[in-house]
Amino acid sequence: MALSAPTPLDRPAKTLEPPLGPLAAIAAGLFVAGLVLSTVLAGGSPFPSPFGPADDALAYFRDHPGAVRTGAVLQFASAIPLTLYVAAVSARARRIIDGFAPALAAVGGTIAAALLICSAVVSWVLTVPEVVTDPALVRALHTLAFLCGGPGNVVASGLLVAGIALSALPQRRLAPWLTTVGLVIAVVALGTTASLTVTAAAFLLPIARFTGMAWLIAAGFLLPRS
Q: Residues 80-125: pLDDT tens digits?
């Protein structure tokens, strides 16, 4: 008995999915551009640390509102491609394996993008002239922006990296060395939680952030669609 040809309803539907690698690269590029441009516009003065003297931070926000606002806008913009990346990579991970790991990537990535937006919005508020006249308010907002965009965003990004790496691990959808590197980056990112109590641990933040960005770009280009 001859078999009938499959009908359109029998064929698997092709999902419309944005390319992961370019999305991660755009998100990272916008974030780095915000850091560089804000420093240039501030005459080479780096963004103040919340652990430094309050008077230095107050002077920076009072004297360089344009630099702060530019950095905040670009940081806000970087969360948009990051959100698209999280949605696409979570869907791709669920096609590879079902269960905990894809959900971890989705939750971690969503929180990371949300905290990045929160940090950008709070930083933008620090450019309002009426705000910078109150030292206590500036200190509070500056610290909040750091907590959201620093430990909060980095820890959540670590969960995103861990979710992707664990999704790819059982069927080796990524090179074993890349999966291992991703899990190490995730552990370092989670370790930045220590910066909430030990100031010296803050040096882990840029390490975990930028290696995590590079890993997401690599995984975005190498993770198969099916």
A: 999 999 999 999 988 888 889 999 999 999 999 999 999 999 999 9
pLDDT, tens digit, 9 for 90 and up, residues 159-171: 999 999 999 888 8
Is the distance from CB of 90 to CB of 142 less than 8 angstroms?
no
**What is the per-residue burial (b if ≥16 Cβ within 10 Å, else e) of 95-119?**
ebbeeebbebbbbbbbbbbbbbbbb
Query: 160, 159, 163, 151: which is closest to 204 by C-alpha?
Result: 151
- 157: three-class secondary structure by DSSP: helix
- Cut 0.85: pTM above it: yes
| Type of residue numbered 27 | A
Q: How many CB atoms lie within 10 A of CB 177?
A: 8
Token pair, residue 83, equals 């959100």
SS3 210: helix
